[in-house]
Amino acid sequence: MDLDVGIDSGAYVASGGMRPVATGPGELFDPSWQTTNDFDFGDPPAPLSDRPRVNDIVFATAQLGTTFLDFVEEPWTLAADGDATEPAVPFAEGLARDRFTLTGDPGGDNAPVWSPAGGRVAFERTAGGNTDVWTVRPDGTDLRRLTTRTGLDGRPSWQPDQESSVDRVGGHTNPGPAPRHPKGPGGGGRGPGGPAPRGEQRRSPRLAIRGATWRGRRLVVAGRAASNLAGRLRVTFACGRSKRQRATRLVRARSGRFRVTIRIPARCRRATRATVVLNYGGDRAYKSQRVTKTVRRSRR
Asked: pTM for this structure?
C-alpha cells in the first residue's frame, strides 16, 4: 500500500492504493522488502536511472502442510513522466513481476529478512521440534545454519551497514529460479546433492506421471524418470494443507520407470479430489523438477 506522511512532522497521515504482490497457493506471510542496484565503476559513474535496479519481496508460503520461502521481483522503473529521480509505483504493474522459489525440503521456514546489500536472506527453520537461524543466497545456494542449540533461535535481524543505501550497494539482478530442495549446512555444492560445478550443464530428470489410480484407501502412481538418478524421487499425496492430509513415499527409478502404492490418510478418506506431486531434488548431473497431477477417487 501507499502511505502519506506529513512533510514537516513525518507522522502518518493516511494509506491507500492497496494492491496484491503475490497470491497463493496457501497462506502467504512474513514479507521483507529490499531494493538493490548494480555497482557502476565508470568515471563518472552512470546515473542511477541507467543502472539495473530491482524490487524484491521475500515471504513465507504455506504448502503441503509446511512452509517454504518464495520471493517476488520486478525491475525498478521510472515514473511515467520520465523524472529520473522518481521511481514508478512499486508492484503496480503485474506483467513485469516474477516469482521465484527460494527454499525447499524439509520446509518449516519463515521470518525471512534481506541483508543490507541484498546478497543473502536470513530466516528461521524449524525441524524436529527445534528452531534455528539459517541464511541462503537469493539463487537458493550456499545454505548455512548459524545456530545449533536446543530451543528457539528465531526472528533474525541484520546489522545495518554504512553502505546499505540503495544508491550505493550492489545487488543481485538475475536470481533464481532456485530449485526447491535441500543442500545441507554449508551449501556450496558439496556432496552428491549439491549443484553442478560451474561450466557443467545439468540435464532434466524427465519426470512424468503416467497414471494415478485412487481406489478406496490406496493410490497407485506410475511414472517415469531418467534411469540413473543419484537420489530418490518423492511422491506426495495431499487432499488438504495439514500434515494429516498428506502421505509421502520415496522411490527409486533405476530402470527409468516406477510404480508406487500410497496409503490414503484417514483425514482424506471422504475426499473425492486430491493432488499428487512428483518431485526430484536434483544432483550434480540433473536439475530439480516438480510435476503435479490432480486425481479423483474412483467410484468403482
From this structure: 0.51
